[in-house]
């Protein structure tokens, strides 16, 4: 199956052609800006060294996106997601975690309206 054509980076003035939304440089910048200015400070405090260890161990044990795997695709894991968000009473318990690729992770958050405030 042919891949989609590349399009310009969504960052204003950047001419780089990309397959996602931003080029690597601007993806880092927009994520950094989000973490610094837009993300809820209470939520940010819940993610520390302990979470990094839990996330890395879970990702090592689940090397493929669990959603894609259900459909027969082997896509490497890029995110570990909380099924019930910490802000809604979720925990770092393994039963509340799922390994996802960036696409599946973004779809979940877009449907919830978390990052882009589409309530």
Automatic annotation (TrEMBL):
GO terms for molecular function: endonuclease activity; hydrolase activity; nucleic acid binding; zinc ion binding. SUPFAM superfamilies: His-Me finger endonucleases. Keywords: Endonuclease, Hydrolase, Nuclease. GO terms for cellular component: cytosol. It comes from the Bacteria. Residues 47-106 form the HNH nuclease domain. It holds the Pfam family HNH. Belongs to the HNH nuclease family. This is Putative HNH nuclease YajD.
């Amino acid at each position: 199956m042919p891949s989609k054509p590349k399009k310009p980076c969504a960052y204003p003035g950047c001419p780089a052609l990309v397959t996602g939304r931003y080029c690597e440089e601007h993806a880092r910048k927009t994520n950094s800006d989000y973490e610094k200015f837009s993300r809820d400070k209470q939520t940010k405090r819940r993610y520390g060294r302990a979470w990094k260890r839990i996330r890395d161990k879970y990702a090592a044990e689940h090397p493929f996106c669990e959603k894609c795997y259900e459909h027969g695709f082997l896509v490497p894991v890029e995110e570990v997601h909380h099924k019930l968000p910490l802000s809604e009473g979720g925990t770092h318990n393994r039963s509340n975690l799922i390994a996802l690729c960036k696409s599946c992770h973004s779809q979940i958050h877009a449907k919830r309206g978390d990052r882009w405030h589409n309530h």
